[in-house]
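Onboarding guide, step 5: your first structure request.
Type a short instruction followed by the sequence, for example:

Predict the 3D structure of this protein.
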Amino acid sequence: MMNDDEYRQYLDALARKYLHRRYVRCKRPFHQEALAYELERLTRLKRLNGLASDELDDDLLSILAKNLIDHNRSYVGELEESGVLDALDDDPETLFKNLRRNAIPDEDADFLRDAGCNDPEAELTLLIAYARTHLFSRRNSNQISPTSEVRNSPEALSNAGERIQKLLDTKTVSSQSFESKTAAKRKIVTGVGNILTGAILATGNVLLGTGNIVAPNAGVAFGVIGSCAAATSAISKGMGELRGE
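The system replies with structure tokens like these:
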């Protein structure tokens, strides 16, 4: 394991190598406004998902399903263009097994709180643990790589909306089928919630970093990489849940 200084230097090096200076230059002046709008939309959707998860109310689930199917999610394109996904792909083992709380900006807790998370620090702790345990070794296995999970997540969210709607449209004929449907609904909304958590963290930190990617500021750019590693952990966890893992 790297110590804190070593890991920060490592994240700084990833930022200098991969975060694209041209990204901000070609996106201004409207780019930050568009990112802020996308963050707001994802935050509202995460709050809706939280309500649907708590209540499993069919009306809420129907609204959630429609939003998941219709929502145009741009976070993957932002991560691609900014160079973040290339940075995450450089050496996943080193990146994920060394992930720690002080590599993640404090703003991430605010993003999670705004999205309805009651204990953001606990959420971040769990995402760090998941990254260290499940993500660092995927390159050398037959499992889907973490960044592939991110790239595939928008389609997975749309498919999840369709699955929810199909469950709502299916008539329940027995108590056993009711329990089975309830479990299936809960599994889907849990996976969706984790993917949305990751999308929010990724979008929020690309937004925070856009002013510094032109000439990467070590105090900000390293946090973009650390936060997006946590975001990738959330998305990968949610993708696994949607697959029933």
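Each response can be followed by summary notes, for example: Residues 212-216 have pLDDT under 50 and may be disordered.
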